[in-house]
Structure formats: C-alpha cells, structure tokens
Amino acid sequence: MKLLTILLFSFISINGISQISNKQIERKFLIGKWGSIDDKKYTIVISDSIREYYDKKLTDTFSYQLEKGKLTKISSKGEIYEYDLMSLNKKHLTLMYLSKGNLLKFKRL
Fold first, then answer.
1. What is the pTM of this model?
2. Which domain holds residue 43?
3. 34 burial via Cβ count (<10 Å: 0-12, 13-18, 19+)
C-alpha cells in the first residue's frame, strides 16, 4: 500500500511539472510573426500584444491572455474574442474562433 501511494504521488508530481512546462512552452512558441495559410494578406504579430495586419497595413491591436489552452483577445474598446488553441508548435498555429467555430491556420514567418 505504501508503495502504491508513493507511485501515485510520483505520477501526479511528474505530470504537474509537465503541465507547467507545457504552458511555458506554449507562450514561448506563440511569440512571433504568423501568416495566415488561407489568406496570404492576413498576418498577426504576437508579443506582449497582438497586432493584426492586412496587406501589410496595421488594422488592429489587442491585449491578450493565454490560459488553459484558450487565447482571449481584448480590443481597446473592450470587445472580447475567444479562441481555442487547437495546435501550436515552432512552425504552425491553429486557433478555433469559439463564437463561430471556424479555424484560423497560421505558419510562422
């Protein structure tokens, strides 16, 4: 019984560390310049804010929060846009816009 308790505690501890690391890695991978795969003129730049460009012209700037696989964009007017972070790695980003369910697919530029 004691061995089972130790193994269970070890498993929980390791998974907890792994989840924290994954959140840090997601933010690190999110930072950068991303080009839309479906609309070549649409680009976003993510740093401490999200800047959206269309045809190389700045169209909007948002603050954002990243928490538990969800990305929330907040406009200067207080409008809120929520996305599920479907996939993220060094080269690709896929977001699902929760209001409409459409996918936004990006590649790192």
1. 0.75
2. 2-108
3. buried
